[in-house]
Amino acid sequence: MDTIRSTIPQVNDLEEYLTSTGFAKKDVKNCALFLQMIEEHKLRRSASTFRAGEIVLEHTNEKLRKRSFLTKILFGSSPSTVNKHLILLEQTFIASLDTSSTNLKRALELFNELKAIVEETLGQKNSQRLKRLEGMLLEASGEFDKAMEHYDAILEDQPTEQRVMKRRIAVFESQNDTKKCLEALNKYLDVFMDDVEAWEHAGKIYAKLFMHEQAIFCFEECICSAPSNYHHHRRVAEQLYALGGFDNLRRASMYYAAAIDMSTGADVRALYGCILTRNTLVKNHAGSSNDSSNSNGKNSIEAVENLAAAAAERLEQMYAIKQEELLGIVRQTVKVKEAKK
C-alpha cells in the first residue's frame, strides 16, 4: 500500500466521523486508515486509537499474523515492505496503556499475545523491544521500580536507545522526582541535542521551578531548531519578563514582538505580554537615570511603547470581531497609561 500523505485536519475530520458513527458501525476500512494516519504523524490520540485498533484486530485476516510479517513489524523492516495492519497489536497495546484506568486488563492480554509470538514462534528470548513494552506495562501498573530495572537492562546493552531513555524520564516524572527527571533529561539531551520537544519539556520544568535563566537557555535551543515556532519566542519572553530589569524587559518585548509577527497577530498571550512588559518597564525604569536617560534607553522605551500600542489595537480588533461583549473590559485592561515625566 502506498504511503498515506494526509494532513492534521484530515486526521481530525476522520476521528470526528469515527467518534460520531464510525466506531458504532465498526467501519474497519476507516479505522485502519485512521491508524495509518496516527502512525504517519506520530500522534498520541489514545482513546480513538485503542477503539480503532480493537475493531481492526477483530477483523484482521489470520494470514496477516504469519511469522514473516510479524518479524518485519517488531524488528524494524522497511516501512514500505510492512503491511500496516500488522503493527496493530503493538499500536493497540500502547494505546491501551494510555487509557489504563479502563483497559489495563486488555493491555496485559495484548502484551501476552505479543510475548507468545515473539518468544515462542520467533524464538526471540531476549527481545529488547519486548522488554521496553513490558516496562511500559509495569509503569501503567504502578510498578515503577521493576520498570526501571527493565530500562536499565536495555541501556546496558544499548546506552543510547532513545525510546528507553525517554521512558526513564517519564518514570521519574510520574514519581514527582524532579531532580532525577532533570538529570535524565540533561543526559538525554547530551545525546539527542536536536530533540526540540525534549528541550521544550526541560524548559517548562525549569520555569515551574522559577529557574528562569535555565528555562531561557532551553527555549532558545528550541528557537535554534524551530525558529518559526512562535510559542518558543513567547516562552523566552515570559521568562525574561519574570527575571525583570531594564535589559530583560526590553528583550522580552522583542521576543513578544517576534511571537506576534510569526503568529500573524493571533498569539493573544504575546499581545497581552507586550502590554504588561511596557507597563512594567515604564513604571519601574522610565525615570531611571542609569537605564533610560541615555538615547539608547529612550529609544528602547519608545520602541516598547509603540509595540504595546499596536498590541492593544490588535486585541481590540480581535475582541470586536469574536467577543464584542467583552470589548469594554478589554479596553480598560489594555489601556496604556502615560509614563511619568
From TrEMBL:
Could you confirm whether the keyword Secreted appears in this record?
Answer: no
The upper taxonomy is: Eukaryota, Viridiplantae, Chlorophyta, Mamiellophyceae, Mamiellales
This protein's major location comes to: endoplasmic reticulum
Q: How does it assemble?
A: Component of the ER membrane protein complex (EMC).
Name of this chain's protein? ER membrane protein complex subunit 2
Record keywords, A-Z: Endoplasmic reticulum, Membrane, Repeat, TPR repeat
Source species, domain of life = Eukaryota
Q: Name one GO cellular component term.
A: EMC complex
Q: Secretion signal: which residues? A: none
What InterPro entries does the record tag this protein with?
EMC2-like (IPR039856), TPR-like_helical_dom_sf (IPR011990), TPR_EMC2 (IPR055217), TPR_rpt (IPR019734)
Where does the record place the EMC2 TPR-like domain? 131-238
Q: Where are the TPR repeats?
A: 128-161, 196-229
Q: Where in the cell is it found?
A: Endoplasmic reticulum membrane
